[in-house]
Specification:
homotetramer, five-stranded antiparallel sheet
Chain lengths: ~140, ~140, ~140, ~140
């Protein structure tokens, strides 16, 4: 199962007047974690893999998160990101963000593989994940 | 049941290289919607109500969202926000964001009423929602 | 001279642990103000005008800002945006953000009109502002 | 003269529909760079130094930036941050952001040392930088 661990620091700009992280920032962090997981699986950065597979991205169709303890500017956190399920055109990711070993946030996301679908304004539509990618996402 | 409807426009700065909204921006929008719902219920703005009830905020403990269709810069959207449940120290909010009448995102959030709890660094802890606030949140 | 006035509210999510706006948020506000100024001058929204003139945007080459008094969440502010100079392929914008009539921030920006220029990764390059646009930017 | 170099990666979430960084994100990056410069000079993290010197922060009173070449998601950049001038209650910072050695952005900022000044809503006011801090900022 694909797994990746990143560390980052919660910054002043991530925090709100209560002095704790403003929760949408977690989703920015998680989005980057998912990108890094895929980059490492495919051995390409995002600009490259969008082009190599001629697709438009992997937007979310669903997410949920539990915030168990707050984080503050200056906190060093680690995020463990896992591909927990992979279908024909969608996949599920789990993130666990910890602070000094204690679980602070856990999140789940379901993403779809989409291509540009013409139209004006341009539309996107779900399409099958390429076999070559599936082979990296779910090694036999 | 407390309800509020706001309209806003998805801006260029909310969108990513795929040309659609970067999903954490939805949570920023929803956070503001929750604030406005409470401000209207209490007849005070957030600076005033944080002070009036001597508390530190109403952070999320859980959220989930379904993204049903993408939005783009220039899209005018409406967000209907409802208080769907209210406990002793927590409450649940539902948001439905529509674009030209079609549901684009639905989200749920559970928030707790917290006070500063001293400590170094300062901690926060959950506390009962004041009766006066409850009376506004859940009119008899 | 093209001028536009918008009003907006500084939100909780715009503010940092000092309780005042985190200054990069001002640039997000100003970027939207510039977009709205151009949209009104051209009678098209940004998606439409990017397409109509087949260009890639009007990124900044320079900006400067003075922050004269802080703003806080809940503050209603007005932003007056003016096109103060217009060259062949660049233009200058001035923003004045006021709170209850008092100047809080003034900012200047120089933007260029750019087109996609192929390459891998794709490059952008400056190009002349179309005559039709100039005629709207600087009415004879 | 105090100097610090940080490296960071421009992420998908930093970029706009033109595929390049949305320029306010540079100011978020620079704000963190200034914080890190001060943290290293003082040997404390920001939570600690705000407390140690009983002040409310070092907001900007002025900034300017030149954007010389765009950056994109996936770009690794380096930011050299210098304290270029230090007065009694304000100081100036210069940032130079490079991509593969080429200058992409240069920015200047003037910041003031402020304390909470009571009032309702709370005000802030400029105050002298403590001698102990000056000694670290401008070693004799």
């Amino acid at each position: 199962m694909l797994t990746n661990i990143r560390t980052t620091r919660i910054e002043w700009c991530d925090c709100d007047p209560a002095g704790i992280i403003f929760y949408p920032r977690y989703f920015e962090i998680f989005d980057t974690c998912t990108t890094v997981l895929i980059e490492r699986a495919l051995g390409m950065n995002k600009i490259e893999y969008l082009k190599a597979y001629n697709f438009a991205g992997h937007p979310l169709v669903e997410t949920r998160a539990r915030f168990r303890r707050p984080t503050r500017f200056g906190d060093d956190v680690a995020i463990e990101t896992k591909l927990v399920e992979c279908g024909r055109s969608s996949f599920q990711i789990e993130h666990r963000l910890t602070k000094q070993g204690a679980l602070a946030v856990e999140a789940f996301e379901t993403r779809v593989w989409v291509a540009a679908d013409g139209g004006d304004p341009p539309q996107i539509k779900s399409q099958p994940i390429p076999d070559e990618v599936l082979a990296r996402f779910v090694p036999a």
